[in-house]
Amino acid sequence: MNDMIALGINDRFQFSCSKTLSCFNECCRDLNQFLTPYDILRLKNRLDISSDLFLEQYTLQHIGPESGLPMVTLKPAETSRLKCPFVSPSGCSVYKDRPGSCRSYPLARLATRSRDTGNITEHYALMTESHCHGFEKGSSQTVRDWIETQGLGIYNLMNDLLMEIISLKNRLKPGALDIKSRHLFHLALYDLDNFRTQLFEARNLEIEPLASQNPDPGLREALKTDDTRLLKFGIEWIKCIFT
Q1: CA dihedral of 159, 2, 62, 79, whole degrees rounded to 10
Q2: HSE-up of residue 1 (Cα within 13 Å, Cβ side)
Q3: Measured by CB atoms within 10 angstroms of the end CB, which terminus of the chain is less buried, N or C?
Q4: DSSP at 219
Q5: Residues 6+ apart with CB under 8 A from 138
Q6: Is the pLDDT of residue 12 over 70?
Q7: Please, what is the Cα angle at 164 between 161 and 165, to 5 degrees?
């Protein structure tokens, strides 16, 4: 039986995953793994390949039925078992840069954003799945501890920035996007290397006036080398398109 148990940020739970568990690697099968823009950034850099090559080799692309926005899922290595392409007998081969949902497990995070104040409210739940034995002998930690030890802070931050786009789009442009808007969203958020090329080499996209409004004088140079800064800029760039 699978249960969801609501937890506060300072509530404790018991969990640990290791090769000694009989269920090791089972959570890397039967997947329907959505990837966020920051997930893709980390994975393509981990594999040392370009964003477009990563998207071609490892992902499937969809349109969100509710948001109308482009969405990306991980392409399984085995269609019949929906096995993650990065799992090996010894575990996750991209563990240091695994997606945020993998890091968070067995916690689920739901964030809501106030339209009036812009403040983010977090809600957490513990997912207890029947196949997982990590709850039987694991160490005890708080939700806050888990977020820190699993390196979730930057993932949550980037996902919250993405949530601003979804909220803005739903408010100002409900329904499906036109082809051009879908292309620009995909380019700026998922295909970062080509986004950089279009900004600085092909110069097919306008970096002004957004860059000139930024108080950081080193922004332009940072965007040429820092993928995280580029993704943050891409999010702001898309917000301008939607407005």
Answers
A1: 130
A2: 3
A3: N
A4: H
A5: 14, 15, 16, 17
A6: yes
A7: 100
The domain in which residue 73 lies consists of: 3-162
What pTM does this model have?
0.92
pLDDT tens digits, one per residue of 60-83? 999 988 788 999 999 998 776 789
Domain match, 11 and 60 both: yes
Q: Where are the alpha helices (DSSP H) in 59-191?
A: 100-104, 143-149, 153-172, 179-189
Q: Tell me the C-alpha distance between 26 and 33, whole Å.
A: 14
Nearest-CA neighbor of 45 among 233, 225, 236? 225
Which three-class secondary structure state does DSSP give residue 50? Answer: coil
Specify the length of the chain in residues.
243
Whether residues 173 and 77 share a domain: the answer is no
Q: Is 95:28 a contact under the CB 8 Å cutoff?
A: no
27 & 66 share domain:
yes
User: What are the DSSP calls for 165-199, one per residue?
Assistant: HHHHHHHHS-SPPPHHHHHHHHHHHT-HHHHHHHH
Question: Could you give the number of structural domains in the chain?
Answer: 2
Same domain, 14 and 119: yes
One domain for residues 93 and 145:
yes
172's CB contacts (< 8 A; 6+ apart) are: 242, 243
220 and 126 belong to one structural domain:
no
Residue with tokens 């939700």, as numbered in its chain: 143
Mean pLDDT value of segment 183-198: 95
Q: Is 24 exposed, middle or buried (0-12, 13-18, 19+ CB in 10 A)?
A: middle
Same domain, 168 and 158: no
